[in-house]
Design brief:
Blueprint: H1 14-23, H2 58-67, E1 81-90, E2 109-118, E3 133-141, E4 144-151, H3 164-171, H4 182-189, H5 196-203, E5 217-218, E6 223-226, E7 232-241, H6 250-259, H7 263-273, E8 279-287, E9 311-321, H8 326-331, E10 344-346, H9 350-366, H10 441-449, H11 452-466, H12 472-485, H13 487-497, H14 501-509
Antiparallel strand pairs: 1-2, 1-9, 2-3, 3-4, 5-7, 6-7, 6-10, 7-8, 8-9
Helix pairs in contact: 3-4, 5-10, 11-13, 12-13, 12-14
This protein binds protoporphyrin IX containing FE.
GO molecular function, one term: heme binding
Cofactor: heme
EC number: 1.11.1.6
């Protein structure tokens, strides 16, 4: 007979072992949460054959209590997702660019956990629905965890975090009908011309990927690479799928949904079970700080790509292991853009700046303040923070020094080598939109880059939703944005929804 797990802490004493062995239950004996064996899991304790159930039935009470607490809040966005483990291998030594140790030598391998997701639709919703897809990567580096929390599309709808809650409210189901409603989100977007570029991406077939394996990933924002000398470069990250890009048309997505609304999870799990491991190459675009002023748009605006800036390959990620338990790993995974490592810093992008706060904050609500201690989130290096206590603290701190600085031998000290880079500044505080908005040009370039079939799909997808908008001011304003991006683009959607072309042209001229 094998000792059950609870024997371990007492295992040092031979007498203890002998006693435990005498009482130990078989290895597969069901236990309660306190480890005690369960005698009957089918029949509640009752007061005789006809009497009520007894409160003393610890197994009955514990099961019902635990069951009633199984749900935690789903993520406020990106609730539906799939996680997978793998590793990232650096393609070289990039220390000239960044002190980030994971990029320090060719062949250097860093474990990763990736979570792919949809954005707006709730946990359990069909994976076939139109949406950007999340592409969040946690690198467990030897200098702590770096979370690159990106999407499958290169830009975003807005450029300032202060708009994010309103945008998500408009895209989520109506508080009255609990249904998603194009009247609501186009009402919002008619005030956000900078969204034209991202809307063009989302309404193209890229809004319905055929597989998580066949989409790219983007960091979207500018970040900073900082080398050991403190030199700063602005960078954008791009995961290029080695499987190529493959999307579904709206019709194909609908057909798949009828048969299998977990299609993206199935595809990923099946590929990994078949040892057909998906891989992505990580590329970076690099700009010197003085180059930021040389664009017609603001390169720190998350609604823009950086055209004609060459990409350098940093390495390759391969995903090869699905989680043993969905909830414990995928659901409890906490990705936060603020979690960076020395050599990688945030840019001044005001959308990113809001994200630096938002994720770690919401995770203290969704998972609790000690969520970084969970096995899926725990760094693979020692954590020597002086954070104290908090709910569900599973730490093992045993020093009475929980403050810094201290003269005590072994007390932790900060290290000036890891100070943040310095940003030159001048001016006053302000509340103003950015200077170089360039809201429409890149949307037009994207439209013109599409094949005739892709263009037709985009027009049909947009017309399907815009055609439901009852307020003609909202509809026509949206149409004027697409027209401003490209006259053919705007005119074709206008025709499809029965709007007056002269009116759209007039509105577009005024933009
Ligand atoms: C100011 C703008 C944004 C805010 C305030 C915001 C906020 C949030 C919040 C609160 C979550 C849930 C986090 C959790 O419960 O663990 C989340 C998830 C996520 N967001 Fe954002 N978001 C913003 C923009 C973006 C952008 C621009 C991207 C892509 C570049 C993005 C990608 C993601 C991804 C991939 C997840 C899911 C992470 C996971 O798989 O757990 N978000 N976002």
């Amino acid at each position: 007979m094998q000792l059950h797990r609870y024997a371990r802490p007492l295992g040092a004493s031979l007498l203890g072992l002998a006693l435990l062995a005498a009482h130990a239950h078989a290895q597969n004996t069901l236990t309660r949460a306190n480890g005690a064996p369960v005698g009957d899991n089918q029949n509640s304790q009752t007061a005789g054959p006809a009497g009520p159930a007894l409160l003393q039935d610890a197994q009955l009470v514990e099961k019902l209590q635990h069951f009633g607490r199984e749900r935690i809040p789903e993520r406020v966005v990106h609730a539906r997702g799939t996680g997978v483990h793998g590793q990232f291998v650096s393609a070289g030594d990039f220390s000239e660019l960044t002190a980030a140790s994971l990029f320090g030598a060719a062949g250097k391998t860093t474990p990763v956990f990736v979570r792919f997701s949809t954005v707006i639709h709730p946990s359990g919703s069909p994976e076939t629905l139109r949406d950007p897809r999340g592409f969040a990567t946690k690198f467990y580096t030897d200098q702590g965890n770096w979370d690159l929390v990106g999407n499958n599309l290169p830009v975003f709808f807005i450029r300032d975090a202060i708009k994010f809650p309103d945008m998500v409210h408009s895209l989520k189901p109506s508080p009255v009908t609990n249904r998603q409603d194009p009247n609501r989100y186009f009402d919002f977007f008619s005030h956000v011309p900078e969204a034209t570029h991202m809307l063009t991406w989302v309404y193209s077939d890229n809004g319905t990927p055929a597989s998580y394996r066949t989409m790219d990933g983007f960091g979207v924002h500018a970040f900073k690479f900082v080398n050991a000398k403190g030199e700063v470069h602005y960078v954008k990250f791009h995961w290029k799928s080695r499987q190529g890009i493959r999307n579904l048309s709206a019709k194909e997505a609908e057909a798949v949904q009828g048969k299998d609304f977990n299609n993206l999870t199935h595809d990923l799990y099946d590929a990994i079970a078949a040892k057909n491991y998906p891989a992505w190459d990580l590329y970076v675009q690099v700009l010197k700080p003085e180059q930021l002023s040389g664009f017609a748009f603001d390169p720190q605006d998350a609604t823009k790509v950086w055209p004609n800036v060459p990409e350098t390959k940093l390495g390759t990620m391969t995903l090869d292991r699905v989680p043993a338990n969905f909830f414990q790993e995928t659901e409890q995974a906490a990705f936060a853009p603020v979690r960076m490592v020395p050599g990688i810093e945030a840019s001044e992008d005001r959308l990113l700046q809001g994200r630096l706060f938002s994720y770690a904050d919401t995770q203290t609500y969704r998972l609790g303040v000690n969520n970084q201690q969970l096995p899926i989130n725990r760094p693979r290096v020692p954590v020597r923070a002086y954070h104290q206590d908090g709910a569900m603290n599973a730490g093992a701190t045993d020093s009475d020094v929980n403050y810094q600085p201290s003269e005590t031998a072994g007390a932790y000290a900060d290290d000036a080598r890891y100070k943040a880079s310095q940003l030159p500044l001048s001016g006053t505080t302000q509340q103003q939109r950015i200077a170089r908005t360039m809201n429409f040009e890149q949307a037009g370039e994207l439209y013109r880059s599409l094949s005739p079939q892709q263009k037709s799909n985009l027009i049909a997808n947009l017309a399907g939703d815009l055609g439901q908008v009852k307020d003609s001011r909202v509809r026509d304003t949206m149409l004027s944005y697409f027209y401003k991006a490209d006259a053919d683009y705007g005119a074709r959607i206008a025709k499809a929804v029965g709007a007056r072309p002269e009116q759209i042209e007039r509105l577009a001229r005024a933009l």
